[in-house]
Design a protein that fits this description.
With 397 residues, the chain is of the alpha/beta class. It folds into two domains: 16-262, Type I PLP-dependent aspartate aminotransferase-like (Major domain) (Aspartate Aminotransferase, domain 2, 3-Layer(aba) Sandwich), CATH 3.40.640; 264-396, Aspartate Aminotransferase, domain 1. It has 13 helices and 13 strands. The chain has helices at residues 16-28, 43-55, 66-76, 94-101, 119-129, 146-155, 207-218, 232-236, 251-262, 264-283, 313-325, 358-364, 378-396, and strands at 59-63, 84-88, 105-109, 133-137, 159-163, 171-172, 175-176, 183-187, 200-204, 297-298, 303-307, 331-332, 367-371. The strands form three sheets. It has a seven-stranded mixed sheet, sandwiched between helices. The protein has a three-stranded antiparallel sheet with strand order 7-6-10, with no helix packed on it. The protein has a three-stranded antiparallel sheet with strand order 11-13-12, covered by helices on one side. A hairpin with a 2-residue loop joins strand 6 and strand 7 (175-176). The relative contact order is 0.16. It binds pyridoxal-5'-phosphate. The site of pyridoxal-5'-phosphate has 15 residues, from helix 3 and helix 4.
Length: 397
């Protein structure tokens, strides 16, 4: 019997250059982002400049986590307590959590067969709810048709916040994920595309939005020490009415992120080689459905999703169990009981007037997911795919 022995939780080590830079920060004692010598740019300053440059946007703010970036994004967008915010029903808990944290009320939108947000339901809910904010999760790296999304946003006057936790490095028709919306948020938590344990970014083209985000993030009155931020005058309009909700990035984490960012595109290529090994073996099994990715989408295959149409809940439980016994960790997004990092929408019971979403439940009922850490080789991915196919065949009988 084939068994896989590596851990699904093991990441690659931090590049030596990052370790050296982190040690230099520790030796200097200047870990706080604003603790600089005259004329010096801190590691956090440099990271922000480099991230803005990578994305091709004027403004970037590094902060303490992706969830924190989403939270202050809502506030910087001007959300008032009780305002409705459209968001994917298929996402992870930090997304509705960030909306709740900012005083917003999530309006959950169905998932479609391609695992992206359902654009017909989005439009219907935009009309029905009258929401003016839309937090779009590019969940598990799947980019919805961004041309249609932008058209819907324009027609319904929606302020778009992209949650790019899973799409750093991805693009749609050559346009980078994170440059479509009014604001984009990224995570650098360990399982994301660059790893600082915890961390995140907020990016935007709007000077006033970035000025508010910088104030919220805890800049004290050092807001003019941002080199990927707007000019000082922009802060004059907002500095007295924008509270400090401290959530800064520090120089230690910035130091380890900078060399990873410089190598991001190479890493994305390595993820995609692994993804395609898994995809081809899984898709060849008639019981397994792997969504065909649109030509317009350049995704980052740091995880793979597939479904087992026709499998009942009990069979899915068996597939997860037997794969687990052979060392292959599958996540089941349809599980009624929240487990591990995964929770179904109806477990976020703090959401007011929780809708029943039968379409979403039906799609999630057979949706399985695996992480693809770069510590796995292509041979490892082949073995994982073969184990999954064997188990699916056994459980089908
Ligand atoms: C889809 C999605 N959005 C946002 C976040 C929030 O990121 P962080 O963990 O950095 O707060 C995560 C983290 O897992 C996520 O998966």
């Amino acid at each position: 019997m084939k068994v896989f022995e590596k851990l699904f939780t093991q990441q690659e080590s931090i590049p030596e250059k990052g370790i050296e830079a982190a040690v230099a920060v520790m030796r200097s004692g200047r870990l706080h982002r604003y603790n600089t010598l005259p004329g010096e740019k801190s590691e956090t300053d440099l990271l922000e400049i480099e991230f803005a440059d990578y994305l091709g946007v004027p403004y970037a703010l590094a902060c303490s986590s992706g969830g924190y970036a989403l939270h202050i994004a809502m506030r910087a967008a001007g959300l008032q307590s009780g305002d409705k915010v459209l968001c994917n029903a298929f996402t992870l808990a930090p997304v509705p959590g960030a909306i709740h944290n900012s005083g917003g009320v999530p309006v959950l939108v169905d998932v479609a067969d391609d695992f992206c947000i359902d654009l017909d339901d989005l439009e219907a809910k935009a009309v029905e709810s009258g929401a003016k904010f839309f937090m779009l999760s590019h969940m598990r790296g799947h980019l919805a048709d961004m041309d249609r999304i932008m058209d819907i946003c324009q027609r319904h006057n929606l302020f778009l916040i992209e949650d790019c936790a899973h799409t750093m490095g991805a693009s749609w028709n050559g346009v980078k994920s994170g440059t479509f919306g009014d604001i984009a948020c990224f995570s650098t938590q360990t399982y994301k595309h660059i790893n600082s344990g915890e961390g995140g970014f907020l990016t935007t083209r709007h000077a006033d939005v970035m000025a508010r985000a910088i104030m919220y993030s805890g800049s004290y009155m050092l807001f003019d020490h941002h080199f990927a931020g707007p000019p000082k005058e922009v802060f004059d309009q907002i500095r007295y009415d924008t509270p400090n909700y401290s959530g800064r990035m520090d120089n230690l984490r910035a130091a380890i992120l900078r060399p990873q960012l410089a190598n991001l595109d190479t890493q994305c290529g390595r993820w995609n080689q692994r993804y395609s090994v898994l995809e081809s073996t899984l898709a060849a099994c008639p019981a397994i459905d792997v969504p065909v990715r649109p030509d317009a989408e350049t995704f980052v295959g740091s995880s793979i999703q597939f479904s087992l149409p026709g499998f009942g809940a009990e069979q899915i439980v068996q597939v997860v169990k037997h794969c687990g016994e052979r060392g292959v960790v599958l996540k089941w997004f349809g599980n009624a009981e929240p487990a591990d990092y995964t929770s179904r929408y109806d477990s976020w019971r703090y959401i007011q007037d929780m809708p029943k979403l039968p379409n979403t439940e039906q799609i999630l009922a057979t949706l399985l997911d695996i992480r693809i850490p770069l510590t796995f080789s292509e041979d490892d991915c082949q073995l994982i795919a073969e184990i999954i196919v064997d188990v699916v065949r056994e459980c089908q009988q």
